[in-house]
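debug: dumping io for the single-chain case to check the tokenizer round-trip. Nothing else runs in this session.
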Amino acid sequence: MDLKDAIAIVGIGGMFPGAKNINEFWRLLKHGENHVKEIPKYRWNNDAFYSPDPNTGGKLYTTHAGLMDRHDEWDNRLFGISDAESERIDLQQRYTLECVHMALEDGGITRKELSGSKTGVYMGCMNDDYKMALYDDFKVGMNPDKEKDANYSVTGTSTSIISARVSYVYNLLGPSMTIDTACSSSLVAIHLGCQSIRLDENDMAICGGVSSIMYPETFLVLCRARMMSAKGQCHAFSDMADGYARGEGCGVVILQRLETALQMKRKIWAVIYTGCNQDGATAHPITAPSTQQQLELLKTVYERHNIDKSQIQYIEAHGVHTFCTNQFNEIQLILRKTNF
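debug: decoded output
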């Protein structure tokens, strides 16, 4: 294993269905808890949208998703955001700020240390449900009282601000971007963060992914494309797969060169190696995965970083769910901390 350009994970934060922080998430994993459940009526009325017949237009043939409790509550003033502006901010911005805060606390990294630093932010995101909700206010019959807050709507709904908001709140001066490569968005975001550190664009990188589900519209188009699981469960890499189940949440990692992290006596979770490629036209149709390209990617990452495959502890990949996968292949290898 080549440690010269090794990237260390020095802080983590997250909130997911059934877990409002990383400690609760570890518990969830340990006990094998499944928090993909029937969509509650305070999100939307399943009875009005459900039909078991996948050919029924305007209907969903699935009723399940992984959703967080108390999803619309947050401490906006912790991040210097007024109550008026907070009302116009996408939940995905809120989740990201909270998870970045958790990750910094986990890594023992202070705001003072970060302010003015060459730290980049790379967040993956493909949903914009909040924008759909907000734009409904501007249709015929809009409540005039809401117009006074409209000046926050642009920054509140733009996905580019998911990452930019973090840079602004913490005064970070490295590149800041939100990446959409569909299901692989967070993986590609972390890959770009690793690359930026190796290129000396950043001393550290805050990376991750975020998703919020508020309305059934996306479910409708995914059901029409037969991408959703009728059982409401993901069975990636299994012959039981009949589609996938959607979920929401946010996960953030803080990355730094291993050499620097050791010098600064950081809390090191693991070393991470990443790789990325595209399928091009090696598989058909455009939604089909390419076995050839996925194998090529694994081979490239192993050889580029001189990795002993027996030392790999964890592999994260963009899983195939039978009917669809984004053509952007991404692989991340996490190696045991004891190796360094």
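debug: round-trip ok. Confidence is low (pLDDT under 50) at residues 320-327.
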